[in-house]
Amino acid sequence: VLCIIAALAGSAATAQTVAVADGDTSIVQYLERHDTGGEVNIVQPAALTLRLSRTDATQAGQRSLTVYRVQLFSDNRSTTAKAEADRRAARVREIFTDVDVYVTFTSPFWRLRVGNFRSYEDANKILHELKTAFPDMASEMRIVRDRANVEMLDYIND
């Protein structure tokens, strides 16, 4: 009986395997083709389309820029780090409404970073303002270099 169930499960999984044609750069392109027997329209952000693409970001014309950001928090405690990063981000957004705030996860770390600055000096100015506004977080704050997709930036902080 177990052999029959395993064989059926294996054949069902195999039946759902789809081979993406060589001309398609992503599964989304394959699904949206009209020659597949149906019509599928997928609405998604441009960043997701790029991530799903088999084409390298540099080949797709995406440009990235080195920016400086102020890191306010970095933690790898899986049970509390995300909630703490979100809590601190909300505090920062209340006072610094004109600066981008990023909560990111790069395994195993949750990080809170602020700003898109062209120079270290510009980032240093806001670092001092942040330390004054949030003295309880001052010991964790530092300036970091980061990469930002030019197309995704709302603006560069000057």
TrEMBL record:
Q: Which organism is it from?
A: Candidatus Barnesiella excrementipullorum
Residue ranges of every copy of the SPOR domain listed in the record: 62-146
What this protein is called in its record is: SPOR domain-containing protein
Entry's Gene Ontology molecular function annotations: peptidoglycan binding
Q: Which InterPro entries match?
A: SPOR-like_dom (IPR007730), SPOR-like_sf (IPR036680)
Any Pfam family matching the protein = SPOR
